[in-house]
Amino acid sequence: MANSDCKTAPLWIAAGDIHDATANFARIPEMDEASGIIISGDLTNNGGIDKYSRILASIQSSHLPILAQIGNMDLPAVDGWLGEKGINLHCQCRELAPGVAIIGIGGSTPTPMNTPAEFGEDAYAAWLDALWQKACKYPHIVLVSHNPPKDTPADRINDDLHVGSVAVRRFIEEKQPDVCICGHIHEGRSIFKMDATTVVNPGPLAEGGYVALRIVKDTPVAELCELAV
Fold it and tell me: In degrees rounded to 5, what are phi and psi of residue 3?
């Protein structure tokens, strides 16, 4: 892929696990050329609508379009509020570019911490099936899942346990979206291939991780990026 193709391709900045700390958005060098921002989940720490809206407003000072969804640390009420604002990605299928769909699932499967937005594997399987019915008409698909796929570099925690979602992994294996952007597991910063799918967990934005998602010749291409912190 020629460098000139990447430089002129539409670009979205994707980040997650922000946990109230938004300062690093202003430090992302590609922000000046970005078409928009994707928040994959956990903008807050146990934050509701008031807190979420204040933090989101600080990001929107960039005047870029934003697509956002709840993570497991955002209160469930935020999901409806994002829908009212027209920017929700959770359980939504949107056209990111001609021929490219973006679909999202927020929250996480159950954790030992009993965080605010946790759901069972059956819910994730049903959500993904419904999203596929809407997205399958598109030649290219980007999946934004706060939950990483199970038994991969993206869901491994410090003691080498894998805590991701079986439903997300199965969807990737069966449907092969072009890109899966995930998060949730801070230690799981990685980029790798699952057959045709590029899976990327940038880790927390507070630790400098983010994704540059470019639409190159009508195809989504993800790059794992890191700020010096």
Answer: -60, -35
Q: Which residue do the tokens 């195809």 mark?
A: 219
How far is it, in rounded angstroms, from Cα 117 to Cα 111? 10
User: Tens of pLDDT along 79-125?
Assistant: 999 999 999 999 999 999 999 999 999 999 999 999 999 999 999 99
The pLDDT score that the predictor gives to residue 8 is 61
Taking residues 126-136, what's their average pLDDT?
98
Residue 193 has pLDDT above 70, yes or no: yes
pLDDT (tens digit per residue) in 141-177: 999 999 999 999 999 998 789 999 999 999 999 999 9
Burial label for 53, CB within 10 Å (0-12, 13-18, 19+), is middle
Distance CA 162, CA 201 (A): 14
Task: Extract the tokens encoding 14.
Answer: 């994707």
Q: Which residues contact 183 (CB under 8 A, 6 or more apart)?
A: 16, 17, 40, 41, 42, 71, 146, 148, 201, 202, 203, 204
**Count of C-beta atoms within a 10 Å radius of residue 20:** 16
Residue type, 14: A
Q: Return the structure tokens found at 9.
A: 């391709």
Q: What are the angstrom distances between the C-alpha of 37 and each of 14, 55, 144, 213?
A: 6, 14, 12, 10
Q: How far is it between the farthest Cα atoms of the chain?
A: 47
Is 167:150 a contact under the CB 8 Å cutoff?
A: no
State how far the Cα of 59 lies from the Cα of 71, in Å rounded to an integer. Answer: 17
pLDDT > 70? residue 10: yes
Instruction: Round to whole Å and give the CA distance between 36 and 45.
Output: 23
